[in-house]
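Sequence in, structure out.
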Amino acid sequence: MSEIAFARSAPPYLSEASVPRAGVGLEPDVTGFYEEATGSVQYVVADQITRRCAIIDPVLDFDPTSGATRTTSADRLLRHIEAQGLILEWILDTHPHADHFSAAGYLKDVTGAPTAIGERVTEVQKIWKKLYNLTFPTNGSQWDHLFADGEQFAVGALQARALLSPGHTLCSVTYLIGDAAFVHDTVFMPDSGTARADFPGGDARQLWRSIQRILQLPGDTRLFTGHDYRPNGREARWESTVAEQKAHNRHLTDRDETAFVKFRNERDRSLPLPDLMLSALQVNIAGGRLPPPEDDGRYYLKVPLNAFPRGNFPVRL
């Protein structure tokens, strides 16, 4: 694979005053890449005019049986960028995922493009650092930039904004780029409903309010979800609109905030822990970086034994 171009001369972010107004209202070209093993969707979001792009929620493949990691999914994104003649400007995480490894660190090493996540990731780092008994900084320095709620930036000539969307996690953000919103684990496709809110720091009421904030966007805003679990075996899908979610989301229609919180809490109590959670989070709170190799040159993951003896989340860690 030849070297992937990235925006070496671009500023790490743009202030509100400096965001190019030419980007307002433009439609980014969005390509989703479905990762079947975890039901995750990775995105390449491109400005059709400048050919600059961002990667959102890249996946580092992991086989829990063998302990093997692979870059197959992430390399697929790089091949697409190369084939389309794009210039990589951002590598964006919406939150530290509990069901797959982030490839942000790998992609940073390969391309040199800056990484970013929401600024409240530091709170999530503190929670899980204690659980794993890790020694590492909990200041978000594993990413190149931490977005504040409402902070504006750009992808090429496209105006973009990071919206704090807590509920699934404390630090979840939605990336609004042109007419497209990348809503991660808030709403799924309408026939799948909404994301769980029982992770440490998660909150069903906050999730409801984050979803309502997203649904205040114009009705034709395109929504791109972070996962699709293919209910009833249908084909994988990941794009909807605000109007479609309002009309058809099976967890939202005919429910107000109180009813949703009751429903979400009851449902979450019945859910098992994500299969890769204890493996993935120690990597993802470090910006998609594996733990440092030990003196034999190998990388090791930690598993805190009996931290969740009932197979679901306690009220407090």
